[in-house]
């Protein structure tokens, strides 16, 4: 019961964050699209898998469109772009819960970071990855990225980068250490 | 006098292979180094303060990452207190459920894990692999490349590979700037052979992700991790950068796995005197800690090193097994060429072939050896019939099915024509009817007419600059008369929205039903349980084209 409650709270928090994030997204799917507010209002378990088959209604592509919108006709009519073919934070959270229900806790944490990263543009995400490679960044540069992630509503990622910065300093993997 | 017997033996293929004696200080030891750490775990104030004999203040980046993310504390003290042989025996005992073993394995340290697998011989390890593999149904992966990066040939070989049963196909490049074209050719070809096959293009890390974001590929695998800090740094990454990259993939709905393998640290001269297997186990804990669903391991491209030392091929099986024990999807290598001897390369593969793994090869070359741009594979297109006959002999599912010439010719032609159409739609350098014909019947690139590579490379770059994406492939294929292939490519792109294939060991059937460790959980618990070769699978495996019906005689 406690676990179920915890999962529910996590889900709600993620939904709030997800909705917040969409307003600051670098490349919002559609300027007129509504934020992704589908609330998976219960604990997600292995029984809900696969989501595409069992819960297509959880998938919200904005403007009242769901997975059934992705058809050949709509592609040919130009109604679908790559931006429509993106996973949402709420689905990543749901998949994280499924992974955890299957005994894979670390995958859930990975998907939690991923859910936050949906708020970062492709270009910026690649830049952040490159900045985390050895000898690329000063400690301050990494801490600045962490602050930027915090500003985007991505605290798990921000702390991950901070943790890297501290360890890079200790193990001499910062810019100029090589 | 020279012995004629020894003269004959010296000319045998096995004696063209290189062998070395163990050299502990430099890490030329497969798995039981006296310098490997002894297991220990101390948790204080909610964090690990000692791991395998090392204090937290002495942790390198890898130790720190494993301590912070790789070990589940709940139950750790009890698991560490168990005798390693007892853990091995529980795993070997069919009636002890897989879940129970996984629970213990999640909470033991790398050195303890090393002790557990080091206590077993290969038959015991194979039995454990049969039970510990994450997905119930085994599968296989192909390499699809050629020396000229010929796109039409890639498409045709991909289609044939898909028809023959590969669930995943991987390409790479002879010339890096060809990458977008290779990725498109593989994608289109694979869907012509069997809808639902997953495709990837092995490239530099950031480029590989970019192609995935654009919908040119469906998953990624070449995200390497290493077992010592120095080698990790030389590989231009850290556990944190790779962990970040893993999440980046998931954030775009793309399946991915890490890659590691015994021997890589020795090859880079920084093994710290530890055994190859111990260092590989560290890689697997990094993978686990990063929350990545799976790993490609089994020495992979460093196979020459473990294969040269005593018990090296046993260590390769052990590393695959550790991946499974950590509940990771395991694409178990059987990949790069390591021996001149057909006997030796077969014996090496039986370790994974007989018990079954998530992907027995990672991959099996769908071309002749000379066209394999991953430095040659242990298995080539020329071995297709050997593979399927061995499956039939042993009643084992090795992930392939026997194919008829007319079916192969048909899907190769379909793939070549579909790619011809898509090149036209995208304004790429034309594919001629002569090329389509050649690819339909080719064995390798020697059978293909040359293309204007300069024009292809220029067009590949232009394609990226124009911002072409997977959606444009769907449109182009449909517009040019290949609606079924277009639909399959769209179905594949659609998977990124629901994320079902981000779960452990996920593949698709031809109707895009996901098959993973969640809904196809390995439930082996002894004779009569788990995956059995039966029904339709057995009918297909035993039906080789060249078997005669004795009743006809």
TrEMBL record, chain A:
InterPro entries per the UniProt record, alphabetical: Ppandiol/glycerol_DeHydtase_su, Prodiol/glycerol_DeHase__sf_su
Q: Which organism is it from?
A: Veillonella rogosae JCM 15642
Taken from the record, one Pfam family name reads Dehydratase_SU
Name of the protein in question: Propanediol dehydratase
- The residues the entry assigns to the signal sequence are none
For this protein, the record's SUPFAM superfamilies field holds: Diol dehydratase, gamma subunit
Membrane-crossing residue ranges in chain numbering? none
Output the superkingdom of the source species. Bacteria
Automatic annotation (TrEMBL), chain B:
- Transmembrane stretches, by residue range? none
Record organism: Veillonella rogosae JCM 15642
| Name this polypeptide is given | Propanediol dehydratase large subunit PduC
Q: Which domain of life is it from?
A: Bacteria
Gene expressing this chain: pduC
Q: Which residues belong to any copy of the Diol/glycerol dehydratase large subunit domain?
A: 1-551
Looking up NCBIfam families in the UniProt record yields: PRK15444.1
